[in-house]
């Protein structure tokens, strides 16, 4: 058992089911349900030396896990109240056997949560992975009742009502303080509503070497990617060794977006940063960051020393903006495309073809609504399966992609995908995406591959927000302008 760590493999529900089948054919007794129940019971013992525990057992194999947990805890002299929301004869075979073993050991089955009892812990074993429908009726009532109890909650495998693949709440969901998940991490724990429902995540591998049985296509992004993206600098170096970034954006009324991106690129180490502005009345110098070289947008494409071009922060959707995107796509530089650059591409099949065949690597950083436009669908469809949407965009447009939000999902054209677990709600404020664009562009300019820069930028972006909150500068009122300074501190540390 271990707490969710960086670079941990992440598996979709269908892959977990395949791992279960493969492991069941090779593992010596006890079986997976017995192993899961014992592992969860042992974790309970680390939380609570003794006390009274309420356990909710559901009508499937998650309920079977709950019966095993209950049996072990009762043997260890905890007081157990177990509510069974199902019919014993309709349980799957292993869960039915676990239920009978619980009864044979002296346990009883309650039909509903008793009144006027104070529990030291509640264990949610109602539904696990693979929930295919919204929770309703009696099950929804149980979820509401558990959430209303004044006791910490431990979820088995997944908080009931949370989709294991998407992190979407199916009707109602348990709000857990801890989640013990079995075999490996599932994406729904980390993205969408997962971070709000799961509490601290603890992985019990049940003695299964997942990577040996079935290498994962997904992983949790970790700090180690930062050392790959920005290795230590040589003493004998100069600004030309750290690349030049061009940024195009800043239409009338949106100048700040381009400046935020430019400042972030400087703070992440780019040797030179040029900002091409569409606002003809824009100032010629950024008084807060005079190191930025401000230009007319048309001048940026003529620069011969650029190592990366970012297009989109404050770009707008004017004919001039569209021409900027076309010129960028026709060029040979690595690209970071955000905001209205993505919206323009979404509405123009010729631009999509240009992007697909672009001669260098491209990074796209859509939020869910922009991702929906790129795929010709709705934001709700994107949020219903963020992993699938990120992979779809990456493969359709031959680009590296992040769908931003809680548990940002990154994907590459080869089908690999990654989930970020840094960041906090304070980052839901204007300009945060512009800072991310500048950070990624700076890493590419300094020699990182598009995938490395994307993963490192997304993780560092969230970690910088976490550092600010830890210092008391948020979450309420956290601003994008503060973020790149915190990111600079972290990367140097």
Structure, described:
Helices cover 41% and strands 15% of the residues. The chain is α/β, with parallel strands linked by helices and 493 residues long. An 11-stranded mixed sheet has the order 2-9-18-17-16-15-14-13-10-11-12, sandwiched between helices. The protein has a 7-stranded mixed sheet with strand order 1-8-7-6-5-3-4, sandwiched between helices. Helix 6 links the parallel strand 7 (178-182) and strand 8 (200-204). The two termini are 30 Å apart.
Throw out a few tags for this protein.
2 domains; 493 residues; 19 helices; 7-stranded mixed beta sheet; elongated; alpha/beta
The CATH homologous superfamily of the largest domain is called: Ribokinase
Radius of gyration: 25 Å
**CATH C-level of the largest domain:** Alpha Beta
Q: What CATH architecture label of the largest domain applies?
A: 3-Layer(aba) Sandwich
CATH topology of the largest domain: UDP-N-acetylmuramoyl-L-alanine:D-glutamate ligase
Number of strand elements: 18
Report the end-to-end length measured between terminal Cα atoms: 30 Å
Structural class: alpha/beta
Largest sheet: 11 strands, mixed
Give unreliable regions as ranges: none
Shape call: elongated
Number of domains: 2
Mean pLDDT: 95
Number of helices: 19
Percent helix: 40-55%
Strand content: 15-25%
Largest sheet, spatial ordering of strands:
2-9-18-17-16-15-14-13-10-11-12
Provide a short characterization of the protein structure:
This protein has 493 residues and is an alpha/beta fold. Helix content is 41%, strand content 15%. The protein is elongated.
């Amino acid at each position: 058992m271990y707490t969710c760590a960086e670079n941990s493999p992440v598996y979709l529900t269908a892959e977990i089911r395949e791992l279960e089948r493969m492991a069941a054919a090779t593992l010596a007794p006890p079986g997976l349900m017995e192993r899961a129940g014992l592992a969860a019971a042992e974790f309970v013992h680390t939380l609570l030396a003794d006390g009274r525990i309420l356990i909710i057992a559901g009508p499937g194999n998650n309920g079977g896990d709950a019966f095993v947990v209950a049996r072990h805890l009762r043997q260890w002299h905890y007081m157990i109240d177990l509510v069974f929301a199902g019919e014993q004869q309709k349980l799957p075979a292993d869960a039915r056997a676990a239920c009978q073993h619980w009864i044979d050991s002296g346990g009883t089955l309650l039909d509903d949560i008793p009144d006027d009892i104070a529990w030291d812990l509640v264990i949610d074993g109602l539904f696990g992975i693979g929930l295919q429908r919204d929770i309703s009726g009696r099950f929804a009532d149980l979820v509401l009742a558990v959430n209303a109890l004044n006791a910490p909650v431990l979820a088995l495998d997944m908080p009931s009502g949370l989709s294991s693949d998407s992190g979407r709440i199916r009707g109602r969901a348990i709000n857990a303080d801890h989640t013990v998940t079995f075999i490996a991490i599932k994406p729904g724990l980390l993205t969408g509503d997962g971070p709000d429902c799961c509490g601290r995540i603890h992985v019990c591998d049940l003695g299964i070497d997942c990577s040996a049985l079935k290498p994962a296509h997904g992983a949790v992004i970790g700090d180690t990617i930062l050392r790959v993206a920005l290795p230590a600098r040589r003493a004998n170096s100069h600004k030309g060794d750290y690349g030049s970034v061009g940024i195009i954006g800043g239409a009338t009324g949106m100048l700040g977006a381009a400046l935020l991106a430019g400042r972030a690129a400087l703070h992440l180490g780019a040797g030179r940063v040029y900002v091409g502005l569409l606002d003809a009345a824009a100032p010629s110098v950024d008084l807060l960051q005079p190191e930025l070289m401000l230009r007319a947008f048309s001048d940026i494409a003529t620069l011969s020393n650029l190592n990366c071009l970012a297009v989109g922060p404050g770009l707008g959707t004017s004919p001039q903006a569209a021409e900027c995107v076309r010129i960028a796509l026709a060029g040979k530089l690595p690209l970071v495309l955000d905001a209205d650059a993505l919206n323009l591409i979404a509405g123009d099949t010729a631009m999509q073809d240009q992007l697909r065949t672009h001669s260098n690597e491209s990074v796209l950083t859509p939020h869910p609504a922009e991702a929906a436009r790129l795929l010709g669908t709705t934001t709700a469809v994107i949020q219903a399966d963020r992993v699938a949407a990120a992979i779809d965009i990456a493969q359709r447009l031959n680009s590296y992609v992040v769908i931003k939000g809680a548990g940002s999902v990154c994907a590459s054209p080869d089908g690999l995908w990654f989930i970020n677990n840094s960041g906090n709600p304070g980052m839901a404020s204007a300009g945060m995406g512009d800072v991310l664009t500048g950070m990624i562009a700076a890493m590419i300019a300094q020699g990182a591959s598009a995938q490395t820069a994307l993963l490192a930028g997304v993780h560092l972006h969230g970690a910088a927000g976490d550092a600010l909150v830890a210092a008391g500068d948020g979450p309420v009122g956290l601003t994008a302008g503060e973020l790149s300074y915190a990111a600079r501190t972290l990367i140097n540390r």
